[in-house]
Amino acid sequence: MHEKESAVIKNIKLAARKPGQKTTIIDVNGIRVGEGLVIIAGPCSVETERQTIETAIAVKNAGAHMLRGGAFKPRTSPYAFQGLGLKGLKILDKARKETGLPVVTEVVDTRDVSWVGEYADVLQIGARNMQNFSLLREAGKSGKPILLKRGMYSTLEEWLNCAEYILAEGNPNVILCERGIRTFETYTRNTLDLSMIPAVKHESHLPILIDPSHGTGILSFIEPMSLAAVAAGANGLEIEVHIDPASALSDKDQQLTVPMFESLMNKLRKLRAFMDEPEMSSALQENMDTPAGKSAVQENSAQNTAPPLPGAFSEAVD
Ligand code: PEP
Ligand code: MN
Q1: Backbone angles phi, psi at 155, to 5 degrees
Q2: Which of 124, 125, 147, 159 to mutate to test the pocket of ligand 1 (most atoms within 8 A of CB)?
Q3: Fewest CB atoms less than 10 Å from the CB: which of 138, 209, 234, 303?
């Protein structure tokens, strides 16, 4: 049990950040989520081999660390494209072999967790399934890294309790992802709640990612909200990118083109370099992690034997 319980969140045991506890680093094939900035990019859905592999190569060349792509799509309408299923997973496997990028893909059904886990490096549990408790338990039993999205009507307390379901099965590999919530505001697809970055950091030791694609649903808003998320201390971003968004079978209006993604990555690199400057880094430090701060995280990094993260964002800030 942690010594001091949060004034707001009760009954969170395994997901809670104990005083002085450092952010947990989730190792995904050598990519260390929770350290530095991890970029997950790729199409909303796996549609064809060519679309997926070309997108994977493009995002890898632009500096992404993992590939996303849905083979099982939880769609609002039963008549909308539901994903390619097993065929989609096999395409993702080819894309992984081609690029070396670990694969993040959604699982929507309890019965599929173990076999989808054979293709996925990270299993995503989507917003609509956040409180599917049997799915959470099964995900916990799988032992795979789990990317748990925040439900669109869920509070932080409910979200952390869902993480707790996975952790309580003995699986410590949980990554949280804020993807926007439903509010009275309908101008954006969802209201991207960036205040969850400091809130999660305050309450939990689990890494927190931001999904600005579903979070805004508006192409031109993805870049500013990505930069804001990084400035606020997000551990990473999950972004939809498609080689030809106009032809996409799902979420065509919010998928970045490759040049847009490259331009965003260049800006993120500059922002990170600025945040890494010693004066800036120490000024930001208390917002970026536990009060124990940088030294605690570095200590943790040193204990981990995985090789350092390749690419643009290898230097840990928080
Ligand atoms: C997705 O990332 O593919 C997705 C369906 O997102 P969400 O569950 O956040 O709606
Ligand atoms: Mn999508």
Answers
A1: -85, 165
A2: 124
A3: 303
Predicted TM-score (pTM) above 0.70 = yes
Strand partners, 67: 41, 103
By three-state DSSP, how is residue 297 classified?
Answer: helix
Structural contact between residues 171 and 139, judged by C-beta atoms closer than 8 angstroms: yes
Q: Given this model, what pLDDT does residue 316 score?
A: 35
CA distance 150 to 312: 28
Could you report the per-residue pLDDT of 36-57, keeping only the tens digit for each? 999 999 999 999 999 999 999 9
Q: What is the 3-state secondary structure (H, E, C) of 134-184?
A: HHHHHHHHHCCCEEEECCCCCCHHHHHHHHHHHHHCCCCCEEEEECCECCC
* Ligand 1 pocket, CB under 6 A: 44, 70, 74, 106, 126-128, 149, 179, 211, 214
User: Which of 72, 152, 192, 211 has most ligand 1 atoms within 8 Å of CB, for mutation?
Assistant: 211
Q: pLDDT by residue (tens digit) across 6-41?
A: 656 778 999 999 999 999 999 999 999 999 999 999
Name the burial class of residue 110, with classes exposed (0-12), middle (13-18) and buried (19+) by CB atoms within 10 angstroms of its CB.
middle
Q: Which tens digit of pLDDT belongs to each residue from 67-112?
A: 999 999 999 999 999 999 999 999 999 999 999 999 999 999 999 9
> In whole angstroms, what separates CA 187 from the centre of its chain?
24
Protein residue whose Cα sits closest to atom 9 of ligand 1: 127
Q: 61 CA distance to ligand 1 centroid (A)? A: 24
Ligand 1 atom nearest to CA at 238? 2
Looking at the DSSP assignment, which residues form a beta bridge with residue 174? 146
